[in-house]
């Protein structure tokens, strides 16, 4: 090959090598840049602790958009029509809503009922007859029509939180019981405040739907604060416990150490909850520990089935209220191992695991303690 | 071989190599979004039945609005795969026309994740942990959202 040809080929090879190097270096630079951007995004996600669907909470009851999709709308014109006996001003949809709501009240409200008994009847009907429309959880929502207002809720028996809240309010207003729809500070959830006697009470029908365990029925602010935050300047204060179902049925434990046995019986009887009033913070702490341990034992067993235990406490004027609600489900636990093994083998496996691990000390879940004020004993 | 022929052959060789390098870069970008989607979905075998929206959907722009409030005019291509039962499984990749809009797209996806977390916190607390494990990734003009059980595997499939 001639010398000049060799030089040309060598130059060509050098150019190709240079181009390959540029592409490789460019790729690395892009990767590094992407990594820097990724770190920036991670930091942003970490810093963004809370999210509000539409700004801060509103100092208003109606025309508030919840979860970005559902608007709380007044139905006072419907309840006014019911109370006045004149529904001529209602359009077709509202007339149908009035009829459906009236038919429910005719069925569940008896003469001589107090306001509290009427409210309880409505709560029990709604939690048993209506279902949560889980389509709202889908990224492209697939809720049934009108699941956020009484018309759709009463017609199709499917509701999102706004549907539960506005329907409950409609019933209360038809019964001439003052009631407001509350929304949380993040504009992600809504429930009701109802006035009985001189006091206001929180009622979250959605949270008790298909369960009817009264765990969200007529709570005071101290109890509701454990679940939600809201504009306490705008909405009335709820400090009474007179009509709180859980508080009404609370007992004073004669012996703290007898509570596990009482809970066992309650679970076997499919009771909705257990609740106790105690005088000291130590006794309240003891009860919460018992609830926690029972929860770890009893959540899924052959004898009792699948149970979700949820427990809270609230400070009273004198002492504390500690309660544990139960949700009995049909769900099975995740793993189904051992079903194809004979009983003797399963028993031997259980013995072997127990022998090797039963000496370990369970570590308490510290997250629970972080969420409760005045719970830990600062003196150790 | 004459000198002229040698020079021509060398120039042709250079041209072919450069063209091949150029084409491999561009071509890979254009056809890869569909391949990326398949790879990401396959990376997590725990995914439930998934629904899909993409730039090829009939209501592409409207469906895109469920993911982001960024103007659809700025989007070159996208896919959004989400659990049909509303559980915390969501895989999305959006390719922007202009790299200067990547930041805006990324911010909107972060807001979208927070909205999903708030929904789960209120209505399906059992999904919150998985939603909190969500990741947002940026690669070139592409922004990805990964919310699933096997996040690391799916991220690898995107990368």
Walk me through this protein's architecture:
The complex is a heterodimer of chains A (380) and B (159). Chain A has 380 residues and is of the alpha+beta class. Chain A has 2 domains: 65-244, C8orf32 fold (Roll), CATH 3.10.620; 249-371. In chain A, 44% of the residues lie in helices and 15% in strands. Chain A contains 13 helices and 12 strands. Chain A has helices at residues 3-47, 76-84, 92-108, 115-129, 150-156, 161-174, 205-208, 221-224, 245-248, 259-268, 281-298, 343-357, 366-371, and strands at residues 65-66, 70-71, 131-132, 158-159, 179-183, 190-196, 199-203, 217-219, 273-278, 300-301, 305-315, 320-329. Chain A has a 4-stranded antiparallel beta sheet with strand order 5-6-7-8. In chain A, strand 3 (131-132), helix 5 and strand 4 form a beta-alpha-beta unit. In chain A, helix 2 runs parallel beside helix 6 and helix 4 runs antiparallel to helix 6. The longest helix of chain A is centred in the N-terminal third of the chain and has 45 residues, at 3-47. Chain B is elongated, with a radius of gyration of 20 Å. The model of chain B is unreliable at 26-31 (pLDDT under 50). Chain B contains 5 helices and 5 strands, in the order H-E-H-E-E-H-H-E-E-H. Helix content of chain B is 50%, strand content 20%. Chain B has helices at 3-42, 60-64, 102-123, 128-132, 151-158; strands spanning 50-54, 75-83, 90-96, 135-139, 142-147. In chain B, strands 1-2-3-5-4 form a 5-stranded antiparallel beta sheet, with helices on both faces. Chain B has one domain (32-158). By secondary structure, chain B is an alpha+beta fold. The A-B interface holds A 2, 4-5, 8-9, 12, 15-16, 19-20, 23, 30, 34, 37-38, 41-42, 44-45, 48, 50-53, 67-68, 132, 134-141, 161, 184, 186, 188-189, 206 and B 1, 3, 6-7, 10, 13-14, 17-18, 21, 25, 51, 53, 63, 66-67, 80, 82-87, 90, 102, 106-107, 110-111, 113-124, 127, 134-140.
């Amino acid at each position: 090959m001639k010398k000049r040809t060799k030089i040309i080929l060598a130059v060509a090879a050098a150019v190709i090598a240079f181009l390959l190097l540029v592409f490789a270096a460019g790729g690395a630079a892009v990767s590094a840049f992407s990594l820097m951007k990724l770190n920036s995004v991670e930091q942003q996600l970490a810093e963004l602790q809370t999210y509000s669907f539409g700004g801060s909470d509103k100092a208003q009851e109606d025309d508030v958009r919840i979860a970005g999709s559902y608007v709380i709308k007044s139905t006072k014109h419907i309840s006014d029509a019911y109370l006045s006996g004149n529904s001529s001003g209602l359009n077709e949809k509202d007339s149908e809503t009035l009829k459906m709501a009236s038919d429910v009240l005719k069925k569940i409200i008896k003469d001589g009922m107090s306001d509290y008994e009427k409210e309880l009847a409505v709560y029990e009907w709604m939690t048993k007859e209506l279902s949560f429309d889980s389509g709202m959880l889908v990224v492209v929502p697939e809720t049934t029509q009108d699941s956020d207002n009484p018309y759709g809720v009463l017609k199709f028996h499917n509701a999102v939180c706004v549907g539960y809240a506005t329907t409950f309010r409609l019933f209360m207003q038809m019964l001439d019981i003052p009631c407001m729809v509350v929304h949380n500070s993040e504009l992600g959830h809504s429930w009701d405040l109802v006035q009985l006697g001189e006091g206001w009470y929180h009622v979250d029908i959605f949270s008790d739907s298909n369960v009817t365990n009264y765990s969200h029925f007529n709570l005071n602010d101290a109890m509701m604060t454990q679940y939600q935050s809201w504009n306490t300047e705008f909405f009335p204060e709820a400090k009474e416990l007179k009509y709180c179902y859980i508080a009404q049925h609370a007992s004073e434990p004669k012996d703290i150490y007898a509570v596990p046995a009482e809970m066992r019986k309650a679970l076997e009887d499919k009771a909705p909850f257990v609740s106790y009033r105690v005088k000291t913070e130590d006794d309240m702490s003891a009860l919460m520990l018992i609830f926690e341990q029972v929860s770890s034992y009893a959540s899924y067993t052959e004898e009792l089935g699948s149970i979700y235990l949820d427990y809270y406490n609230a400070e009273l004027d004198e002492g504390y209220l500690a309660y544990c609600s139960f949700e009995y489900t049909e769900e099975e636990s995740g793993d189904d191992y051992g079903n194809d093994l004979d009983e003797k083998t399963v028993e031997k496996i259980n013995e072997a695991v127990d022998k090797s691990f039963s000496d370990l000390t369970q570590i308490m879940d510290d997250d629970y303690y972080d969420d409760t004020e005045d719970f830990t004993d600062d003196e150790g | 071989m004459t000198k002229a022929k040698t020079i021509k052959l060398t120039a042709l060789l250079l041209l072919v190599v450069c063209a091949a390098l150029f084409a491999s870069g561009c071509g890979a970008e254009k056809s890869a979004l569909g391949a990326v989607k398949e790879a990401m979905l396959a990376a997590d075998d725990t995914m439930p039945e998934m629904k899909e929206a993409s730039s090829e959907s009939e209501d592409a722009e409207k469906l895109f609005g469920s993911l982001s409030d960024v103007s659809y005019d700025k989007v070159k291509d996208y896919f959004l795969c989400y659990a049909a039962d509303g559980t915390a499984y969501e895989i999305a990749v959006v390719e922007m026309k202009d790299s200067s809009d990547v930041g805006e797209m990324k911010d909107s996806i972060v807001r979208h994740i927070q909205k999903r977390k708030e929904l789960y916190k209120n209505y399906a607390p059992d999904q919150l942990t998985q939603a909190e494990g969500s990741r947002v990734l940026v690669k070139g003009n592409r922004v990805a959202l990964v919310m699933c059980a096997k996040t690391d595997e799916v991220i690898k499939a995107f990368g």
